[in-house]
From TrEMBL:
Keywords: ATP-binding, Cell membrane, Copper, Copper transport, Ion transport, Magnesium, Membrane, Metal-binding, Nucleotide-binding, Phosphoprotein, Repeat, Translocase, Transmembrane, Transmembrane helix, Transport. Its main location: membrane. The lineage of its organism: Bacteria, Bacillati, Bacillota, Bacilli, Bacillales. The chain holds residues 457 to 743 of 793 of the full protein. The keyword Cell cycle does not apply. Belongs to the cation transport ATPase (P-type) (TC 3.A.3) family. Type IB subfamily. The keyword Transcription regulation does not apply. It is found in: Cell membrane; Endomembrane system. This is Copper-exporting P-type ATPase.
Length: 287
């Protein structure tokens, strides 16, 4: 590899908004044959909005008050909705985030739980009667979260996040380049599959806990694949480091950008197949 052609390749990439941290990552990108994409903020815009709530107003007030303490994008959607409706939020006495599952908090002496099925079953709250309702939301690609107050189910909140407009075209190009495309998410399988279908991804790994994302990348590597991981969140950082090429979404967290080998500006997914094209032409010219 001549240093000059690597420099030219990196320069061309940078002009398009693809920032390689070092020339060696052009070589790594050239060798890729699988790519793993995080869902929220990578395939989708990461700006979820509340679409439904099945409980009453008092329940929503407690729900939004509890979520005020969370930094999760899902929480942001719920708080934004309450603000829009000019709902007064109540001071939280205790707050506890349960990564990959939800939150637990204490408000006006009441225990408020918000999260997925696992969170509810772990707390012995029976949600069997709401399974059908949950499935309906999830089939629509929405993330459904359950609310329980003092151990009793009080409603389901559904949140939807739109796919990036260029995601289907980017996925199509990646497949044409011979890459296996996989979506990885902490969200439930039904929601994940609905989103994957909208963008043309056939392989989905869902309900992955934040600390398990890197293990999933390793498993694919053990199948003999050279794997790129694309992500935006703090959760994605270990997987970005583990991957042969870590690609951060420029609009994502600083932690993800630091962990990655490449950053794509503006989160434009079409820049990924473009980066691969540039790597091919650069490396081929070298050999
Ligand atoms: P993602 O990979 O989509 O960022 P996470 O691993 O952060 O997902 O979360 C997985 C699931 O845990 C969410 O889909 C949601 O059901 C639940 N969850 C996480 N954080 C919260 C929260 N603040 N409020 C309610 N539910 C949450
Ligand atoms: Mg994300």
């Amino acid at each position: 590899a001549t240093p000059t052609s690597i420099m030219v390749g990196s320069g061309r990439a940078a002009e398009s908004g693809i920032l390689f941290k070092g020339g060696e990552h052009l070589e790594g990108t050239h060798q890729l044959n699988a790519i793993v994409l995080d869902k929220t903020g990578t395939v989708t815009k990461g700006k979820p909005e509340v679409t439904d709530f099945t409980g009453d107003e008092e329940a929503f007030q407690l729900l939004a008050s509890a979520e005020k303490g969370s930094e999760h994008p899902l929480a942001g959607a719920i708080v934004a909705y309450a603000t829009e409706k000019e709902m007064k939020l109540i001071e939280v006495e205790e707050f506890n985030a349960i990564p990959g599952h939800g939150i637990e908090s204490k408000i006006s002496g009441k225990q408020v739980l918000v999260g997925n099925r696992k969170l509810m079953t772990d707390q012995h709250i029976d949600i069997g009667a709401y399974e059908e309702e949950l499935s309906t939301f999830e089939t629509e690609g929405k993330t459904a979260m359950l609310l329980a107050i003092d151990g009793k189910y009080r409603g389901t909140v559904a949140v939807a996040d739109r796919i990036k407009e260029t995601a289907p075209q980017a996925i199509k190009e990646l497949k044409e380049q011979g890459l296996e495309v996989i979506m990885l998410t902490g969200d439930n399988e039904r929601t994940a599959k609905a989103i994957a279908k909208q963008v043309g991804i056939d392989h989905v790994i869902a309900q992955v806990l934040p600390e398990e994302k890197a293990d999933k990348v390793k498993e694919i590597q053990l199948q003999g694949k050279k794997v790129a991981m694309v992500g935006d969140g703090v959760n994605d950082a270990p997987a970005l480091v583990t991957a042969d090429v870590g690609i951060a979404i420029g609009t994502g967290t600083e932690v993800a950008i630091e962990a990655a080998d490449v950053t794509i500006l503006g989160g434009e997914l079409l820049l990924i197949p473009k980066a691969i094209r540039i790597s091919h032409s650069t490396i081929r010219n070298i050999r």
